[in-house]
Amino acid sequence: MTEPYYQVDFIAVGCKFEILINDLSLLSLTINSQASTLIPLNSGIFKTGQQKLEIKIYPLEGQEFLHPQAAFSYEIKIYDVKFGFELKDTLGGDKFPAVGVSKKLRSLEHVQNFHAEVPYVTDTWQKGQILADVKDLNDKLKRAYSKIAMLIRNKEYERLKMEFANREQTMATAMYLSKEDSDARLSSLIEDIEAGFEAMPVHPTAVMRIFGSGKLAAYKKLNGEPAFGLLNHKTGEELLLDLAFYVPQGSTEFELI
């Protein structure tokens, strides 16, 4: 059995952009000059079938309109990672050419639907409640973040592992991670905490964002970055944690996913 690994290979110039798949935000970033990289899509591919990729382009911070040189291009590539990293196919993509000085655009958007074949199903949060039906949503989300921060401050690593269990299981399944590789992800976070990283308060400009077909919530900064993270006061290093929460059926509180 193959292990299909879907990636977006993109180039961004002079813009803020967001990449989403199936209403999950994979990356939100501001590029003042030019950058190119690949990011995996599998964490947002839940099962075999039609997938929806969205690209959204916004002005640089402090600007009302897109920069004249703002541009974005991408391709979807499929690799087989069963025995390495073998490119199997390219599904095409799209290109936003430079906006130009004559246009005053506040945003650009593009949607591409494509078929993906994956040997797994991940559906933990999909079985959760529609958040529009949950009372006191903002207060409950604050409590969920505070709980994670408390476990980090108190170095309660076993409880922290339990909180991250659903999230890590979903990631391990979608990314074909071995148990060793999966365990290493959380071990790396624990090592950072032991090295002096401390939980920061949720960023003061944070806004609650609902996504995942109305079943997921997270706090985001105004620029789209995660609003929660760790800071090493000695080195000045910052580690942002891109967390998302859902409310399981039969529960009244958020759980990390």
Task: Outline the low-pLDDT stretches.
Answer: none
Radius of gyration, in Å, reads 19 Å
Distance between the termini: 27 Å
**On the 0-100 scale, what is the average pLDDT?**
94
Q: Count of helical segments?
A: 3
> Beta-strand level of the residues, as a percent range?
35-45%
Count of the separate structural domains: 2
Largest sheet: 6 strands, antiparallel
Q: Give the total of beta strands.
A: 13
Helix and strand sequence? EEEEEEHHHEEEEEEE
Q: What form results from the Cα inertia axes? A: globular
What is the SS-derived class?
alpha+beta
Helix fraction bin: 10-25%
Characterise the protein shown here:
The chain has 257 residues and is α+β, with helices and mostly antiparallel strands. It has helices at 137-153, 157-174, 179-194; strands spanning 4-21, 24-40, 49-58, 71-80, 86-96, 108-116, 197-199, 207-211, 216-220, 229-232, 238-240, 245-246, 255-256. A hairpin with an 8-residue loop joins strand 12 (245-246) and strand 13 (255-256). It is globular, with a radius of gyration of 19 Å. The mean pLDDT is 94.
What is the fold's blueprint, element by element?
Elements: E1 4-21, E2 24-40, E3 49-58, E4 71-80, E5 86-96, E6 108-116, H1 137-153, H2 157-174, H3 179-194, E7 197-199, E8 207-211, E9 216-220, E10 229-232, E11 238-240, E12 245-246, E13 255-256
Antiparallel strand pairs: 1-2, 1-3, 1-4, 3-6, 4-5, 7-10, 8-9, 10-11, 12-13
Helix pairs in contact: 2-3
What brief labels describe this structure?
six-stranded antiparallel sheet, 257 residues, 13 strands, alpha+beta
